[in-house]
Amino acid sequence: MSKQIIRWGILGPGRIAHNFMRGLLVTPDAELAAIASRDVARAQSFAAEYNASARCYGSYEELAADPNVDAVYVATTNPHHLAPCKMMMQAGKAVVVEKPIALNAEQAKELVDCAKANDVFFMEGMWTRFFPVNAKVLQWIDQGRIGDVRMVEANFSFRVDWDPEHRVLDLAKGGGALLDVGIYSILYASMIMRGKRPQAVTGLAHLGETGVDEQAAYLMRYDDGALAVLRSGVRTAIEMDAFIYGTEGYIHVPIFWHPVRAELRAEPLNQENSSVHQGEILEVFESPYEASGFQYEIAYVSECLRKGITNCDKMPMEESLMIAEVMTHLRRDQWGMKYPEEA
């Protein structure tokens, strides 16, 4: 018996929207219905690239008014999430907005309040949470395979060439490592800690020539004493792995933000007068994927919509708001870094 087909619209056909589209193409019972851009030629070019028969609009208002769109993926740049998300939700559309949910905590609250007032599905598009590998990681933890979680380490940092107009180096474009990649590390730690608000948050950042955080490190303490040690950067290349350390073992997730492998390891052996050795591998879980990997998020959200769910359990609105508050505190209160809208 076939399922209800969820008809998706894409708002903002830029780079990340292409990744979403590649995932949509391999997702059963989901289809592209419409594309909206302020420049209709961009929408038409996007549709042509995928040989899609989707309706192409030169305004967001036209997409909001389309009765044959169930859900909208908002893929605009960081400073331009608030208005289109509100427009779509007020029109009764389900909305997935590419991370970060908004530029700051105030905007995030406005979006969450809008979703609840209009009784529509709304979710921050953190695709990392939907990969089978990370589901296995959570299962291992729930099964007690590593004992009690005591520390999470997650790093996401890369190096771009110097260009003050590059989106990650430009304050006016919502640039900086925190909103671009630091959010992955922070939301990963929050996933492992089951969405608990950290009791204490501190961070240090290097603000570069353009005023954005070019690299940063964050430390969070939770109510049971567990810690999250996280790093991000856009001018420093490091390994992008996650480690979850427990009282009886640990888990290693290479390239945690879109993983294909996780290793369950025994507690490292501390030998007297010797360095710490890696723990023995107890189990390996591998899950290669086709296309971009966005299909896991799209399929899960589509199923939520079929069931009438408005708040996704894997990425709840309230957790997105909490993380937005944490990131705003780090950036604005601790580093003194403000975007033009906040000056």
Q: Which characteristics define this entry?
A:
six-stranded parallel beta sheet, single chain, eight-stranded mixed beta sheet, 24% strand, 343 residues
Structural overview:
With 343 residues, this protein is of the alpha/beta class. 31% of the residues lie in helices and 24% in strands. The chain contains 9 helices and 14 strands. The strands form 2 sheets. It has an 8-stranded mixed β-sheet with strand order 8-9-10-7-11-12-13-14, covered by helices on one side. A 6-stranded parallel β-sheet has the order 3-2-1-4-5-6, with helices on both faces. Helix 5 links the parallel strand 5 and strand 6. The protein is globular. The termini are far apart.
Question: In a nutshell, what does this entry contain?
Answer:
The protein is α/β, with parallel strands linked by helices. It is 31% helix and 24% strand.
State the order of secondary-structure elements, H for helix, E for strand. EHEHEHEHEHEHEHEEEEEEEHH
Helix content: 25-40%
What is the tally of helical segments?
Answer: 9
Low-confidence stretches: none
**Residue-averaged pLDDT, rounded?**
96
Cross-sheet strand order for the largest sheet: 8-9-10-7-11-12-13-14
Helix/sheet category: alpha/beta
Estimate the strand proportion: 15-25%
Count of individual beta strands = 14
What is the CA-CA span between the terminal residues? 55 Å
Q: Any idea what the radius of gyration is?
A: 20 Å
Determine the oligomeric state from the structure: single chain
* Coarse morphology: globular
- Biggest sheet details: 8 strands, mixed
